[in-house]
Write a structure and sequence with these properties.
By secondary structure, the chain is of the alpha+beta class. Among the domains are: about 40 residues, no CATH class; about 60 residues, Beta Barrel (OB fold (Dihydrolipoamide Acetyltransferase, E2P)), CATH 2.40.50.140. The protein has four helices and 13 strands. It starts with 6 loop residues before the first strand and ends with a strand.
């Protein structure tokens, strides 16, 4: 990826996306490309899109996340209300910093940490939401340890939503 200015991502001999390394990472066209690019890979959570008053929510298990209006409008216009989708979020877009938690209360989830992996300047926190294994890449100064239940917030400006059936990107 360091040498290429354009990369072709293929699956079973079929071109999935041709783009720059940065665009493949930031704007994957489907679940395959999203999961292929990046280490650790993008987290995927199956959700139901629900309209509650003027808000559009992603529901998964006992959790719900309010989608920003600009992204919610796309889901409404494309008739995804009451349909299943796949939420994609990269590990670095899940935060445990208090400032981020305070500024993003609509995206906070409670997570029980199962594994803490120290990598020097960063830490990977592993946890499960319902049946989905999730990884968060956080600052090495985190106080979270295995067994702790902590609050984490998703950066909603960085989420990706994919059609569950076609696996194609709906929005990013």
């Amino acid at each position: 990826m360091t040498l290429g200015t354009r990369i072709v991502v293929m699956k079973d001999g079929i071109i999935q996306q041709v783009d720059t390394p940065q665009n493949l990472y930031d704007k994957p066209t489907n679940l395959f490309v999203a999961g292929f690019m990046g280490m650790p890979p993008m987290n995927f959570i199956e959700c139901k899109v629900v309209k509650s008053g003027a808000d559009v929510l992603l529901m998964f298990g006992s959790h719900s996340i309010k989608i920003p209006d600009s992204k919610a409008q796309i889901l409404v216009e494309q008739n995804y209300i009451d349909k299943e989708v796949v939420l994609g979020i990269r590990p670095e877009d899940i935060h445990d910093e208090q400032l981020f938690l305070e500024s993003s209360p609509e995206s906070i989830i409670d997570a029980r940490i199962t594994i803490y992996e120290m990598l020097g300047a960063e830490v990977y926190l592993y946890f499960t939401i319902d049946q989905f294994d999730i990884t968060a890449r956080v600052n090495a100064r985190t106080t979270a340890r295995p067994g702790d239940t902590v609050q984490l917030a998703f950066d909603l400006s960085k989420i990706h939503i994919f059609d569950k059936e076609t696996e194609q990107k709906i929005l990013d």
